[in-house]
Write a structure and sequence with these properties.
Blueprint (H helix, E strand, L loop, with lengths): L8 E5 L4 H12 L3 E6 L2 H13 L3 E6 L5 H15 L4 E4 L15 H26 L5 E6 L12 H21 L5 E7 L6 H6 L11 H11 L8 E4 L5
Parallel strand pairs: 1-2, 1-4, 2-3, 4-5, 5-6, 6-7
Helix pairs in contact: 1-2, 1-7, 3-4, 4-5
């Protein structure tokens, strides 16, 4: 039986756990071949094994997203093998320390911006030609409520997400004329992830939704009639 995403190629960052892993598995379940990207090869292999066990297909690409040269090599390898990319899911992120703005450590802030913002720009730059080769491409950037609603002690992480949203909004505006490349900004809301556990250590994990709920919402809205540049929260109705 054919599946909705048969013949489609997706790349998911931060795919070794949490929302990234769940989204990769959901895409594979719908027929897409998924390129799994993260630093941890063992974690990626576990996700790949689950995808294969469920009858899906995936390829792992363990790279450091702060290494622009590595991103360029990955894009070249994808171009050589597949010639296009249909879905780019920009999920990888770093929380960092929750601290007053005046106490933000410059080196840590640089790492946060490097992963949450600069790596995503590098990925878009490297894969833009392949996205344009797709009959209908989706770029999904995972953000946070603090990207649009500043909160005390979340200045470093929140500002990185605010900048990411501005970057994705500009890319959406720049590519709207193509009619076949759609950018979506997704706020997953409260979700049971490792990052959430670090930010809210006293929270009961079962009190928030699992990553699979976010993954299902993302996959459901791929190919929908939402205009490019849309921002939506998973807790909101479709």
């Amino acid at each position: 039986m054919t599946k909705p995403l048969d013949g489609k190629l997706a790349l998911v960052t931060g795919a070794s756990r949490g929302i990234g892993a769940a989204t990769a598995e959901a895409l594979a379940a719908q027929g897409a071949h998924v390129i799994l990207v993260a630093r941890s090869a063992p974690g990626l292999e576990q996700v790949e094994d689950r995808i294969h066990a469920a009858g899906g297909s995936a390829t792992i690409a363990p790279i450091d997203l702060t290494d622009g040269e590595a991103i360029g090599k990955l894009a070249a390898a994808v171009a050589e093998r597949w010639q296009k990319l249909d879905m780019l899911i920009l999920n990888a992120g770093m929380l960092g320390s929750l601290t007053p703005v005046e106490h933000i450590d410059a080196k840590e802030y640089g790492r946060i911006l490097g992963i949450n913002l600069l790596a995503n720009q590098a990925l878009i730059a490297a894969f833009d030609p392949l996205l344009r080769q797709s009959d209908g491409a989706d770029v999904v950037g995972v953000t946070s409520s603090v990207g649009s609603e500043p909160r005390a002690f979340w200045g470093a992480y929140g500002s990185s997400k605010a900048a990411l949203e501005a970057l994705l909004g500009a890319y959406a505006d720049e590519t709207a004329y193509t009619g076949k490349l759609r950018v979506t900004i997704v706020d997953p809301g409260a979700t049971r992830t490792r990052m959430r556990g670090l930010a809210f250590p006293g929270e009961e994990p079962d009190s928030v939704k699992p990553p699979e709920a976010v993954a299902a919402a993302i996959v459901e809205r791929l190919g929908s009639d939402l205009p490019t540049g849309s921002r939506w929260r998973v807790d909101e109705p479709a």
